[in-house]
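Continuing the series of single-chain predictions for the mutant panel. This is the parent chain; the variants come on the following pages.
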Amino acid sequence: MRIIRNSLVVPIPNDPQDELLYQLQKDVLEFVYEKGVKGVILDLSELKIIDSILIKIILDTAKMASLMGASPMFVGLRPELVGSLIHFDFDPGCTPTVSSIEEACQMLHPELSFEEVEEGIEEEEKEEEKEEEEMEESDKKA
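Parent structure:
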């Protein structure tokens, strides 16, 4: 998970175990509570298939985030997922869906220009790379 322009981006891994999903849900809610993020962007782009438990946890996470004051949004829906979501009675009116994280940030933060959103994403990616490099260096020293 990462924060971009006061929105929490939550990648949903492909074929996650139920325990992982419940932990992810808990982490998202704690993040919303502690950091006061304005949006929760649930990135479904890694999912290949979706089952009833997975969709229930994802939809419940979006509802819970909304109750806590964060605007949930889904990104990364592929054609094969759309059919499954409709099969499980997903109501697209309840949680907006967009094609990219950039588009989600723009919708959640209309006061920012597209360039400012992209800059925020680039800054976040640079920070992640720096953290990874620091972790690798500390692993080498250990």
